[in-house]
Amino acid sequence: MLRTTLGRSLYGMRRGLVGWGIGVAVCVWVMAAIWPSMQSMDIDALLAQYPEPLKEAFNVADYGTGTGFLNGELFSIVIPAIFAVYGIGRGARLVAGEEQDGLLELVVVTPTSRTSVLLQKAAALAVGVAVLGAVLWASILVGSALAGMDVGVIPAARAAVLVTLLGIEFGAVALAVGAATGRRSAAVAAGGGLAVAAYLLYLVGQLVEGVRPYRWLSPVYQAIVDGPIGPSLPELAALMPLVAIAAVAAAAPVFDRRDLSGG
Amino acid sequence: MIRTVGLSKRFGDTVALDHLDLEVGPGCIFGFLGPNGAGKSTTIRLLLGLLRPTSGRAEVLGHDVVRDRRQVHRVVGYLPGDVSIDPDLTARQYLDHLSALRGGVDPQARDELVERFDLDLGRRIGTLSHGNRQKVAIVQACMHRPQVLVLDEPTQGLDPLVQRTFLDLLRETRDRGGTVFLSSHVLSEVEDVADVVAVVRGGRLVATTSVAELTDRTRRRVVLTTHSPADLDALRATEGVISAAPSDGGVEVVVEGSMAALFQLAAPWGVDRVVADEVDLAGVFLHLYEDH
Questions:
Q1: Which of A103, A206, B109, B280 would you label with B233, given CA atoms 20 to 30 Å apart?
Q2: Is residue B10 scored above 90 in pLDDT?
Q3: What pLDDT score does A56 carry?
Q4: pLDDT of B281
Protein backbone atom coordinates (compact mmCIF):
# COMPACT_ATOMS: atom_id res chain seq x y z
CA MET A 1 0.00 0.00 0.00
CA LEU A 2 2.73 2.45 0.93
CA ARG A 3 5.07 1.57 -1.91
CA THR A 4 3.76 4.31 -4.19
CA THR A 5 2.54 7.88 -3.96
CA LEU A 6 -0.88 6.62 -5.07
CA GLY A 7 -0.99 4.08 -2.25
CA ARG A 8 0.29 6.57 0.29
CA SER A 9 -2.31 9.11 -0.75
CA LEU A 10 -5.16 6.60 -0.55
CA TYR A 11 -3.91 5.45 2.84
CA GLY A 12 -4.09 9.05 4.00
CA MET A 13 -7.64 9.38 2.67
CA ARG A 14 -9.02 6.28 4.36
CA ARG A 15 -10.43 7.86 7.50
CA GLY A 16 -12.00 10.77 5.69
CA LEU A 17 -13.62 8.39 3.24
CA VAL A 18 -15.27 6.48 6.06
CA GLY A 19 -16.76 9.72 7.40
CA TRP A 20 -17.92 10.98 4.02
CA GLY A 21 -19.28 7.53 3.15
CA ILE A 22 -21.37 7.50 6.31
CA GLY A 23 -22.62 11.00 5.45
CA VAL A 24 -23.68 9.92 1.96
CA ALA A 25 -25.41 6.79 3.25
CA VAL A 26 -27.27 8.76 5.92
CA CYS A 27 -28.49 11.29 3.33
CA VAL A 28 -29.79 8.52 1.11
CA TRP A 29 -31.44 6.61 3.94
CA VAL A 30 -33.14 9.64 5.42
CA MET A 31 -34.75 10.20 2.03
CA ALA A 32 -35.66 6.54 1.79
CA ALA A 33 -37.23 6.75 5.25
CA ILE A 34 -39.38 9.72 4.20
CA TRP A 35 -40.46 8.06 0.99
CA PRO A 36 -43.35 5.88 2.32
CA SER A 37 -45.04 8.88 3.95
CA MET A 38 -44.53 10.98 0.82
CA GLN A 39 -46.10 8.27 -1.20
CA SER A 40 -49.26 8.28 0.90
CA MET A 41 -49.72 12.00 0.24
CA ASP A 42 -51.02 13.04 -3.10
CA ILE A 43 -47.78 14.71 -3.97
CA ASP A 44 -48.44 14.97 -7.68
CA ALA A 45 -51.58 16.99 -7.05
CA LEU A 46 -49.59 19.28 -4.81
CA LEU A 47 -46.87 19.71 -7.37
CA ALA A 48 -49.34 20.40 -10.13
CA GLN A 49 -49.78 23.86 -8.63
CA TYR A 50 -46.10 24.65 -9.02
CA PRO A 51 -44.95 26.61 -12.09
CA GLU A 52 -43.43 24.35 -14.68
CA PRO A 53 -39.92 25.93 -14.88
CA LEU A 54 -39.51 25.68 -11.12
CA LYS A 55 -40.38 22.01 -11.18
CA GLU A 56 -37.86 21.49 -13.89
CA ALA A 57 -35.22 23.52 -12.12
CA PHE A 58 -35.46 21.47 -8.99
CA ASN A 59 -36.06 18.25 -10.76
CA VAL A 60 -39.35 17.64 -9.01
CA ALA A 61 -41.44 16.75 -12.05
CA ASP A 62 -41.84 13.13 -11.19
CA TYR A 63 -42.31 12.64 -7.46
CA GLY A 64 -44.71 9.77 -7.88
CA THR A 65 -41.94 7.16 -8.29
CA GLY A 66 -39.00 6.28 -6.04
CA THR A 67 -36.60 7.15 -8.82
CA GLY A 68 -38.22 10.50 -9.44
CA PHE A 69 -38.32 11.28 -5.75
CA LEU A 70 -34.62 10.57 -5.27
CA ASN A 71 -33.71 12.48 -8.42
CA GLY A 72 -35.58 15.50 -7.13
CA GLU A 73 -34.76 15.35 -3.45
CA LEU A 74 -31.23 13.97 -3.42
CA PHE A 75 -29.70 14.64 -6.78
CA SER A 76 -30.85 18.15 -7.55
CA ILE A 77 -28.40 19.58 -5.04
CA VAL A 78 -27.42 17.57 -1.94
CA ILE A 79 -25.52 14.68 -3.45
CA PRO A 80 -23.81 16.70 -6.23
CA ALA A 81 -22.78 19.21 -3.56
CA ILE A 82 -21.34 16.49 -1.34
CA PHE A 83 -19.34 15.04 -4.22
CA ALA A 84 -18.17 18.48 -5.31
CA VAL A 85 -17.04 19.45 -1.82
CA TYR A 86 -15.31 16.13 -1.26
CA GLY A 87 -13.55 16.28 -4.63
CA ILE A 88 -12.45 19.90 -4.21
CA GLY A 89 -11.24 19.30 -0.66
CA ARG A 90 -9.17 16.27 -1.65
CA GLY A 91 -7.92 17.91 -4.83
CA ALA A 92 -6.73 21.00 -2.97
CA ARG A 93 -5.17 18.91 -0.22
CA LEU A 94 -3.31 16.32 -2.28
CA VAL A 95 -0.69 18.63 -3.78
CA ALA A 96 -1.07 22.23 -2.59
CA GLY A 97 -2.11 21.29 0.94
CA GLU A 98 0.67 18.77 1.38
CA GLU A 99 3.14 21.22 -0.09
CA GLN A 100 2.10 23.97 2.31
CA ASP A 101 2.38 21.54 5.20
CA GLY A 102 5.90 20.71 4.04
CA LEU A 103 5.05 17.08 3.40
CA LEU A 104 5.75 17.05 -0.32
CA GLU A 105 9.38 18.09 -0.10
CA LEU A 106 10.90 14.78 0.90
CA VAL A 107 8.79 12.99 -1.69
CA VAL A 108 9.89 15.09 -4.65
CA VAL A 109 13.59 14.82 -3.74
CA THR A 110 13.43 11.08 -4.30
CA PRO A 111 14.23 10.05 -7.88
CA THR A 112 10.57 10.06 -8.90
CA SER A 113 9.42 12.70 -11.37
CA ARG A 114 7.06 15.41 -10.25
CA THR A 115 4.78 14.52 -13.14
CA SER A 116 4.46 11.01 -11.81
CA VAL A 117 3.67 12.40 -8.35
CA LEU A 118 0.93 14.61 -9.82
CA LEU A 119 -0.58 11.80 -11.90
CA GLN A 120 -0.65 9.50 -8.89
CA LYS A 121 -2.32 12.20 -6.84
CA ALA A 122 -4.91 12.58 -9.60
CA ALA A 123 -5.45 8.83 -9.59
CA ALA A 124 -5.86 8.87 -5.81
CA LEU A 125 -8.45 11.62 -6.15
CA ALA A 126 -10.36 9.63 -8.78
CA VAL A 127 -10.27 6.45 -6.69
CA GLY A 128 -11.39 8.33 -3.57
CA VAL A 129 -14.39 9.90 -5.30
CA ALA A 130 -15.19 6.57 -6.97
CA VAL A 131 -15.24 4.84 -3.59
CA LEU A 132 -17.70 7.46 -2.40
CA GLY A 133 -19.69 6.77 -5.58
CA ALA A 134 -19.74 3.07 -4.82
CA VAL A 135 -21.03 3.83 -1.33
CA LEU A 136 -23.73 6.00 -2.88
CA TRP A 137 -24.74 3.23 -5.24
CA ALA A 138 -24.91 0.62 -2.48
CA SER A 139 -26.83 3.00 -0.20
CA ILE A 140 -29.43 3.68 -2.90
CA LEU A 141 -29.93 -0.02 -3.49
CA VAL A 142 -30.24 -0.80 0.21
CA GLY A 143 -32.51 2.20 0.85
CA SER A 144 -34.64 1.40 -2.16
CA ALA A 145 -35.04 -2.22 -1.09
CA LEU A 146 -35.97 -1.27 2.47
CA ALA A 147 -38.43 1.47 1.52
CA GLY A 148 -39.82 -0.23 -1.55
CA MET A 149 -38.68 2.50 -3.92
CA ASP A 150 -38.13 0.19 -6.82
CA VAL A 151 -34.91 1.81 -8.08
CA GLY A 152 -33.09 -0.42 -10.56
CA VAL A 153 -29.48 -1.59 -10.10
CA ILE A 154 -28.31 -0.09 -13.41
CA PRO A 155 -30.11 3.27 -13.08
CA ALA A 156 -28.68 3.65 -9.58
CA ALA A 157 -25.20 2.83 -10.90
CA ARG A 158 -25.64 5.41 -13.61
CA ALA A 159 -26.42 8.08 -11.04
CA ALA A 160 -23.41 7.05 -8.97
CA VAL A 161 -21.13 7.20 -12.01
CA LEU A 162 -22.41 10.64 -13.02
CA VAL A 163 -21.92 12.31 -9.64
CA THR A 164 -18.57 10.54 -9.30
CA LEU A 165 -17.48 12.10 -12.59
CA LEU A 166 -18.76 15.45 -11.35
CA GLY A 167 -16.74 15.19 -8.13
CA ILE A 168 -13.66 14.11 -10.07
CA GLU A 169 -13.95 17.02 -12.48
CA PHE A 170 -14.23 19.68 -9.75
CA GLY A 171 -11.56 17.91 -7.71
CA ALA A 172 -9.22 17.69 -10.70
CA VAL A 173 -9.54 21.41 -11.33
CA ALA A 174 -8.69 22.08 -7.67
CA LEU A 175 -5.79 19.63 -7.87
CA ALA A 176 -4.49 21.20 -11.07
CA VAL A 177 -4.67 24.76 -9.80
CA GLY A 178 -3.08 23.66 -6.52
CA ALA A 179 -0.28 21.92 -8.39
CA ALA A 180 0.28 24.91 -10.65
CA THR A 181 0.28 27.52 -7.86
CA GLY A 182 1.20 25.62 -4.69
CA ARG A 183 -1.59 27.41 -2.85
CA ARG A 184 -4.45 25.56 -1.23
CA SER A 185 -6.63 28.67 -1.14
CA ALA A 186 -6.26 29.14 -4.90
CA ALA A 187 -7.10 25.49 -5.44
CA VAL A 188 -10.26 25.68 -3.33
CA ALA A 189 -11.27 28.96 -4.96
CA ALA A 190 -10.88 27.52 -8.46
CA GLY A 191 -12.72 24.30 -7.72
CA GLY A 192 -15.43 26.00 -5.66
CA GLY A 193 -15.82 28.82 -8.15
CA LEU A 194 -16.25 26.37 -10.99
CA ALA A 195 -18.79 24.38 -9.00
CA VAL A 196 -20.87 27.43 -8.11
CA ALA A 197 -20.69 28.76 -11.67
CA ALA A 198 -21.70 25.35 -13.00
CA TYR A 199 -24.67 25.15 -10.68
CA LEU A 200 -25.82 28.69 -11.49
CA LEU A 201 -25.55 28.07 -15.23
CA TYR A 202 -27.60 24.92 -14.80
CA LEU A 203 -30.23 26.63 -12.68
CA VAL A 204 -30.56 29.74 -14.82
CA GLY A 205 -30.52 27.58 -17.93
CA GLN A 206 -33.55 25.72 -16.60
CA LEU A 207 -35.42 28.93 -15.81
CA VAL A 208 -34.40 31.43 -18.50
CA GLU A 209 -35.12 30.68 -22.10
CA GLY A 210 -32.17 32.74 -23.41
CA VAL A 211 -29.62 30.79 -21.35
CA ARG A 212 -31.10 27.41 -22.14
CA PRO A 213 -28.92 26.75 -25.26
CA TYR A 214 -25.77 27.06 -23.13
CA ARG A 215 -26.75 24.99 -20.14
CA TRP A 216 -25.10 21.88 -21.63
CA LEU A 217 -21.79 23.57 -20.84
CA SER A 218 -22.47 23.18 -17.13
CA PRO A 219 -20.95 20.06 -15.55
CA VAL A 220 -23.92 20.02 -13.19
CA TYR A 221 -26.25 19.83 -16.17
CA GLN A 222 -24.09 17.12 -17.72
CA ALA A 223 -24.33 15.11 -14.52
CA ILE A 224 -27.96 15.41 -13.49
CA VAL A 225 -29.91 16.09 -16.67
CA ASP A 226 -32.52 13.37 -17.21
CA GLY A 227 -31.98 11.91 -13.83
CA PRO A 228 -29.33 11.17 -12.88
CA ILE A 229 -31.01 7.91 -11.91
CA GLY A 230 -31.95 6.71 -15.37
CA PRO A 231 -31.45 4.07 -17.99
CA SER A 232 -28.24 5.10 -19.78
CA LEU A 233 -25.32 7.51 -19.60
CA PRO A 234 -25.71 10.69 -21.66
CA GLU A 235 -22.99 11.41 -24.20
CA LEU A 236 -22.39 14.79 -22.60
CA ALA A 237 -21.12 12.97 -19.49
CA ALA A 238 -17.88 12.26 -21.35
CA LEU A 239 -17.04 15.96 -21.05
CA MET A 240 -16.51 15.63 -17.29
CA PRO A 241 -13.53 13.23 -17.39
CA LEU A 242 -12.19 15.06 -20.44
CA VAL A 243 -12.09 18.38 -18.60
CA ALA A 244 -10.52 16.66 -15.58
CA ILE A 245 -7.78 15.12 -17.72
CA ALA A 246 -7.17 18.38 -19.57
CA ALA A 247 -6.82 20.32 -16.31
CA VAL A 248 -4.27 17.90 -14.85
CA ALA A 249 -2.40 17.67 -18.16
CA ALA A 250 -2.15 21.46 -18.34
CA ALA A 251 -0.89 21.68 -14.76
CA ALA A 252 1.75 18.95 -15.11
CA PRO A 253 4.44 20.97 -16.95
CA VAL A 254 3.88 23.96 -14.66
CA PHE A 255 4.20 21.77 -11.57
CA ASP A 256 7.33 20.19 -12.98
CA ARG A 257 9.09 23.51 -13.50
CA ARG A 258 7.94 25.75 -10.71
CA ASP A 259 9.53 26.53 -7.36
CA LEU A 260 8.30 24.34 -4.56
CA SER A 261 7.64 26.08 -1.28
CA GLY A 262 9.06 24.57 1.86
CA GLY A 263 5.88 24.70 3.92
CA MET B 1 31.14 17.18 -6.21
CA ILE B 2 29.12 20.38 -5.80
CA ARG B 3 29.68 23.34 -8.07
CA THR B 4 27.69 26.52 -8.51
CA VAL B 5 28.45 29.12 -11.14
CA GLY B 6 26.90 32.56 -10.83
CA LEU B 7 23.95 30.94 -9.09
CA SER B 8 21.26 33.55 -8.46
CA LYS B 9 17.70 33.46 -7.23
CA ARG B 10 15.24 36.26 -7.07
CA PHE B 11 11.76 36.13 -5.55
CA GLY B 12 9.91 39.04 -7.06
CA ASP B 13 12.03 42.06 -6.19
CA THR B 14 13.92 40.30 -3.43
CA VAL B 15 17.35 38.97 -4.29
CA ALA B 16 17.74 35.83 -2.21
CA LEU B 17 20.98 34.71 -3.78
CA ASP B 18 23.36 36.79 -5.82
CA HIS B 19 25.92 35.17 -8.12
CA LEU B 20 27.11 32.44 -5.84
CA ASP B 21 30.24 30.63 -6.96
CA LEU B 22 31.08 27.61 -4.88
CA GLU B 23 33.15 24.53 -5.37
CA VAL B 24 33.08 21.69 -2.88
CA GLY B 25 35.29 18.69 -3.52
CA PRO B 26 34.96 15.06 -2.52
CA GLY B 27 35.88 13.94 0.97
CA CYS B 28 34.91 17.24 2.52
CA ILE B 29 32.51 18.50 5.14
CA PHE B 30 31.54 21.94 3.97
CA GLY B 31 30.05 24.32 6.50
CA PHE B 32 27.74 26.90 4.98
CA LEU B 33 27.39 29.68 7.49
CA GLY B 34 25.37 32.82 7.64
CA PRO B 35 22.76 34.66 9.63
CA ASN B 36 19.09 33.85 9.09
CA GLY B 37 17.87 35.09 5.75
CA ALA B 38 21.35 35.11 4.22
CA GLY B 39 20.42 32.70 1.44
CA LYS B 40 21.49 29.39 2.96
CA SER B 41 18.20 27.59 2.53
CA THR B 42 17.73 29.12 -0.90
CA THR B 43 21.09 27.70 -1.97
CA ILE B 44 20.19 24.28 -0.61
CA ARG B 45 16.79 24.28 -2.25
CA LEU B 46 18.40 25.26 -5.54
CA LEU B 47 20.89 22.39 -5.22
CA LEU B 48 18.00 19.98 -4.74
CA GLY B 49 16.00 21.28 -7.68
CA LEU B 50 13.19 22.44 -5.41
CA LEU B 51 13.76 25.95 -6.75
CA ARG B 52 14.86 26.97 -10.22
CA PRO B 53 17.72 29.42 -10.54
CA THR B 54 16.90 32.86 -11.90
CA SER B 55 20.32 32.75 -13.51
CA GLY B 56 23.51 30.77 -13.22
CA ARG B 57 23.69 27.06 -12.67
CA ALA B 58 24.60 24.36 -10.21
CA GLU B 59 25.90 20.83 -10.53
CA VAL B 60 26.02 17.93 -8.15
CA LEU B 61 28.42 15.15 -9.17
CA GLY B 62 28.39 16.64 -12.66
CA HIS B 63 24.59 16.50 -12.93
CA ASP B 64 22.90 19.81 -13.66
CA VAL B 65 20.34 20.44 -10.93
CA VAL B 66 17.72 21.61 -13.41
CA ARG B 67 18.22 19.33 -16.40
CA ASP B 68 19.25 16.16 -14.57
CA ARG B 69 17.18 16.65 -11.46
CA ARG B 70 16.43 12.96 -11.02
CA GLN B 71 20.09 11.99 -11.28
CA VAL B 72 20.83 14.54 -8.59
CA HIS B 73 18.08 13.12 -6.39
CA ARG B 74 19.57 9.65 -6.78
CA VAL B 75 22.92 10.63 -5.30
CA VAL B 76 21.86 13.20 -2.71
CA GLY B 77 20.49 12.74 0.79
CA TYR B 78 18.57 15.74 2.08
CA LEU B 79 17.71 16.79 5.58
CA PRO B 80 15.41 19.82 5.50
CA GLY B 81 15.69 22.52 8.11
CA ASP B 82 12.11 22.50 9.20
CA VAL B 83 11.31 18.84 9.47
CA SER B 84 7.71 18.09 8.71
CA ILE B 85 6.99 14.47 8.05
CA ASP B 86 3.74 12.58 7.78
CA PRO B 87 2.30 12.54 11.28
CA ASP B 88 -0.15 9.88 10.15
CA LEU B 89 2.41 7.14 9.55
CA THR B 90 4.63 5.19 11.89
CA ALA B 91 8.35 5.79 11.47
CA ARG B 92 8.67 2.35 9.87
CA GLN B 93 5.86 3.00 7.37
CA TYR B 94 7.36 6.36 6.48
CA LEU B 95 10.86 5.01 5.92
CA ASP B 96 9.42 2.08 3.93
CA HIS B 97 7.48 4.53 1.80
CA LEU B 98 10.48 6.72 1.01
CA SER B 99 12.67 3.64 0.44
CA ALA B 100 10.15 2.33 -2.08
CA LEU B 101 10.03 5.69 -3.87
CA ARG B 102 13.84 5.75 -3.99
CA GLY B 103 14.40 2.14 -4.85
CA GLY B 104 17.61 0.28 -4.12
CA VAL B 105 17.81 1.13 -0.44
CA ASP B 106 19.72 -1.57 1.41
CA PRO B 107 17.45 -2.55 4.32
CA GLN B 108 20.46 -3.59 6.34
CA ALA B 109 22.08 -0.18 6.03
CA ARG B 110 18.83 1.38 7.11
CA ASP B 111 18.38 -0.89 10.10
CA GLU B 112 21.93 -0.12 11.14
CA LEU B 113 21.11 3.60 11.18
CA VAL B 114 17.90 3.00 13.08
CA GLU B 115 19.85 1.07 15.68
CA ARG B 116 22.58 3.68 15.98
CA PHE B 117 20.05 6.40 16.63
CA ASP B 118 18.00 4.16 18.87
CA LEU B 119 14.87 4.99 16.94
CA ASP B 120 11.54 3.39 17.82
CA LEU B 121 10.05 2.52 14.44
CA GLY B 122 6.69 1.38 15.72
CA ARG B 123 5.38 4.72 16.91
CA ARG B 124 3.34 7.14 14.87
CA ILE B 125 5.43 10.12 13.83
CA GLY B 126 2.78 12.49 15.13
CA THR B 127 3.40 11.20 18.65
CA LEU B 128 7.20 11.58 18.49
CA SER B 129 9.14 14.38 20.14
CA HIS B 130 10.91 16.92 17.96
CA GLY B 131 14.24 15.22 18.57
CA ASN B 132 12.90 11.81 17.58
CA ARG B 133 11.29 13.23 14.48
CA GLN B 134 14.67 14.69 13.63
CA LYS B 135 16.13 11.19 13.95
CA VAL B 136 13.60 9.88 11.44
CA ALA B 137 14.62 12.68 9.10
CA ILE B 138 18.31 11.86 9.55
CA VAL B 139 17.71 8.20 8.78
CA GLN B 140 15.75 8.99 5.62
CA ALA B 141 18.53 11.32 4.48
CA CYS B 142 21.27 8.75 4.99
CA MET B 143 19.61 5.38 4.40
CA HIS B 144 20.58 5.11 0.73
CA ARG B 145 24.19 5.90 1.62
CA PRO B 146 24.27 8.97 -0.62
CA GLN B 147 27.53 10.34 -1.97
CA VAL B 148 26.36 13.84 -1.20
CA LEU B 149 24.56 14.86 1.97
CA VAL B 150 22.81 18.21 2.05
CA LEU B 151 21.74 19.29 5.51
CA ASP B 152 19.87 22.44 6.42
CA GLU B 153 20.51 23.41 10.05
CA PRO B 154 20.56 19.78 11.07
CA THR B 155 21.50 19.76 14.73
CA GLN B 156 18.73 21.97 16.03
CA GLY B 157 16.78 20.13 18.68
CA LEU B 158 19.08 17.12 18.89
CA ASP B 159 20.25 16.05 22.32
CA PRO B 160 24.04 15.99 22.71
CA LEU B 161 24.35 12.21 22.55
CA VAL B 162 22.41 12.00 19.31
CA GLN B 163 24.34 14.95 17.98
CA ARG B 164 27.59 13.09 18.52
CA THR B 165 26.30 10.05 16.67
CA PHE B 166 25.14 12.33 13.91
CA LEU B 167 28.48 14.12 13.58
CA ASP B 168 30.22 10.72 13.50
CA LEU B 169 27.97 9.78 10.63
CA LEU B 170 28.98 12.91 8.73
CA ARG B 171 32.66 12.14 9.28
CA GLU B 172 32.14 8.60 8.00
CA THR B 173 30.49 9.96 4.88
CA ARG B 174 33.47 12.23 4.34
CA ASP B 175 35.97 9.46 5.05
CA ARG B 176 34.54 7.25 2.35
CA GLY B 177 34.94 10.10 -0.14
CA GLY B 178 31.52 11.69 0.14
CA THR B 179 30.64 15.33 0.45
CA VAL B 180 28.63 16.88 3.25
CA PHE B 181 27.06 20.28 2.73
CA LEU B 182 26.04 21.57 6.12
CA SER B 183 24.32 24.88 6.72
CA SER B 184 24.06 26.66 10.02
CA HIS B 185 23.77 30.06 11.57
CA VAL B 186 25.81 28.99 14.59
CA LEU B 187 29.57 28.65 14.17
CA SER B 188 29.97 26.21 17.06
CA GLU B 189 27.65 23.82 15.30
CA VAL B 190 29.97 23.40 12.34
CA GLU B 191 33.44 24.17 13.63
CA ASP B 192 33.86 20.77 15.26
CA VAL B 193 33.08 18.85 12.16
CA ALA B 194 33.59 21.00 9.06
CA ASP B 195 36.80 21.16 7.05
CA VAL B 196 35.96 24.24 5.07
CA VAL B 197 33.55 27.02 5.89
CA ALA B 198 31.87 29.47 3.57
CA VAL B 199 30.11 32.50 4.88
CA VAL B 200 27.11 34.08 3.13
CA ARG B 201 25.34 37.27 3.95
CA GLY B 202 22.62 39.09 2.11
CA GLY B 203 22.66 36.48 -0.64
CA ARG B 204 26.36 36.97 -1.37
CA LEU B 205 29.36 34.83 -0.59
CA VAL B 206 31.48 36.72 1.92
CA ALA B 207 34.38 34.37 2.37
CA THR B 208 35.54 30.80 2.18
CA THR B 209 38.14 29.65 4.66
CA SER B 210 39.38 26.57 6.41
CA VAL B 211 37.92 26.04 9.84
CA ALA B 212 41.36 26.38 11.35
CA GLU B 213 41.71 29.89 10.01
CA LEU B 214 38.22 30.82 11.07
CA THR B 215 38.81 29.60 14.61
CA ASP B 216 42.07 31.55 14.73
CA ARG B 217 40.21 34.68 13.91
CA THR B 218 37.19 34.13 16.07
CA ARG B 219 36.68 36.42 19.02
CA ARG B 220 34.99 35.14 22.12
CA ARG B 221 33.93 36.85 25.30
CA VAL B 222 34.93 34.80 28.33
CA VAL B 223 34.09 35.49 31.94
CA LEU B 224 36.45 33.89 34.47
CA THR B 225 35.52 33.68 38.13
CA THR B 226 38.71 33.37 40.14
CA HIS B 227 39.77 32.77 43.79
CA SER B 228 42.41 35.45 43.88
CA PRO B 229 42.09 38.69 41.92
CA ALA B 230 43.11 38.63 38.28
CA ASP B 231 46.00 40.71 37.04
CA LEU B 232 44.40 42.83 34.34
CA ASP B 233 47.62 44.25 32.98
CA ALA B 234 49.18 40.81 32.63
CA LEU B 235 45.98 39.66 30.91
CA ARG B 236 46.05 42.50 28.44
CA ALA B 237 49.64 41.63 27.56
CA THR B 238 48.77 37.99 26.87
CA GLU B 239 48.72 36.55 23.37
CA GLY B 240 45.25 36.59 21.82
CA VAL B 241 43.65 38.80 24.47
CA ILE B 242 41.95 41.79 22.91
CA SER B 243 40.58 43.35 26.07
CA ALA B 244 40.15 42.61 29.77
CA ALA B 245 37.89 44.26 32.32
CA PRO B 246 36.82 43.47 35.87
CA SER B 247 33.47 41.79 36.14
CA ASP B 248 31.30 40.52 39.00
CA GLY B 249 33.69 38.40 41.11
CA GLY B 250 36.09 37.88 38.23
CA VAL B 251 37.22 39.19 34.93
CA GLU B 252 35.73 39.56 31.51
CA VAL B 253 38.10 38.89 28.64
CA VAL B 254 37.71 39.04 24.86
CA VAL B 255 40.01 36.56 23.16
CA GLU B 256 40.82 35.99 19.52
CA GLY B 257 41.75 32.47 18.46
CA SER B 258 43.37 30.08 20.90
CA MET B 259 42.80 30.46 24.63
CA ALA B 260 45.87 28.45 25.62
CA ALA B 261 47.95 31.46 26.74
CA LEU B 262 45.02 32.93 28.64
CA PHE B 263 44.47 29.81 30.72
CA GLN B 264 48.17 29.35 31.37
CA LEU B 265 48.23 32.80 32.86
CA ALA B 266 44.98 32.44 34.77
CA ALA B 267 45.61 28.98 36.27
CA PRO B 268 47.48 30.21 39.41
CA TRP B 269 44.56 32.53 40.31
CA GLY B 270 42.34 29.52 40.87
CA VAL B 271 39.67 29.51 38.19
CA ASP B 272 36.35 28.42 39.67
CA ARG B 273 34.17 28.94 36.69
CA VAL B 274 34.43 29.82 33.01
CA VAL B 275 31.50 31.14 31.00
CA ALA B 276 32.18 31.56 27.30
CA ASP B 277 29.71 33.33 25.07
CA GLU B 278 28.43 31.79 21.91
CA VAL B 279 30.53 33.30 19.18
CA ASP B 280 29.08 36.37 17.67
CA LEU B 281 28.98 35.16 14.11
CA ALA B 282 28.19 38.56 12.73
CA GLY B 283 31.42 39.80 14.30
CA VAL B 284 33.41 37.01 12.70
CA PHE B 285 31.79 37.69 9.36
CA LEU B 286 32.49 41.36 9.58
CA HIS B 287 36.07 40.53 10.35
CA LEU B 288 36.37 38.27 7.36
CA TYR B 289 34.49 40.72 5.23
CA GLU B 290 36.97 43.48 5.97
CA ASP B 291 39.82 41.21 4.94
CA HIS B 292 38.46 39.76 1.72
A1: B280
A2: yes
A3: 67
A4: 57
Which of B101, B141, B86 has the alpha carbon at shortest distance from A6? B101
Q: How many domains does chain A have?
A: 1
- State the pLDDT at residue B262: 87
**Min CA distance, B125 vs chain A (Å)?**
13
Residues of A in contact with B140 (CB under 8 A): 106
Residue A215 in domain: yes
What is the span of the domain harbouring residue B43?
Answer: 2-209
Residues A106, B85: C-beta atoms closer than 8 Å: yes
- A260 shares contact with chain B (CB less than 8 Å): yes
Task: Out of B76, B82, B137, name the one closest to residue A263 (CB).
Answer: B82
Shared domain check, B133 and B167: yes
Record: contact A109-B73, CB cut-off 8 A? yes
pLDDT category at B240 given cuts 50, 70, 90 is confident
Which of A3-17, A51-65, A203-217 tops mean pLDDT? A3-17
For the segment B131-147, the average pLDDT, to the nearest whole number, is: 92
Instruction: Please check whether residues B15 and B143 belong to one and the same domain.
Output: yes
Smallest CA-to-CA distance from A168 within A98, A227, A229, A87 is with A87
Q: Are both B249 and B180 inside the same structural domain?
A: no
Residue B30 shares a structural domain with residue B150:
yes
At A59 the pLDDT is 61
The whole domain housing A26 covers 19-257
Q: What pairs with residue B24 in β-bridges?
A: B2
Give the domain-ending residue among B179, B209, B239: B209
| A107 vs B: CB within 8 A | yes
Confidence of residue A42 (pLDDT cuts 50, 70, 90): low
| Chain A closest-CA separation from residue B52 CA (Å) | 6
* A200-232 per-residue burial string, b: 16 or more CB within 10 A, e: under 16: ebbbbbbeeeebeeebeebbbbbbbbebbbbee
Give the closest residue to A105 by CA, choosing from B79, B99, B156, B88: B79
Nearest by CB to residue B98, choosing from A106, A113, A257, is: A106
CB of A45 less than 8 A from some CB of B:
no
Structural domain total, chain B? 2
> Which one of B164, B187, B209 terminates a domain?
B209
How close B283 comes to chain A (CA, Å)? 30
CA dihedral (A70, A71, A76, A81) positive or negative: positive
Does A260 contact B51 at a Cβ distance shorter than 8 Å? yes
pLDDT for position B283: 63
Can you tell me the ipTM of this complex? Answer: 0.86
Specify the pLDDT at position A246.
97
B129 and B41 in a common domain: yes
Query: How many cross-chain Cβ pairs, A to B, lie less than 8 Å apart?
Result: 71
Rounded to the nearest angstrom, the minimum Cα separation between B198 and chain A is 23
Is residue A166 in a domain? yes
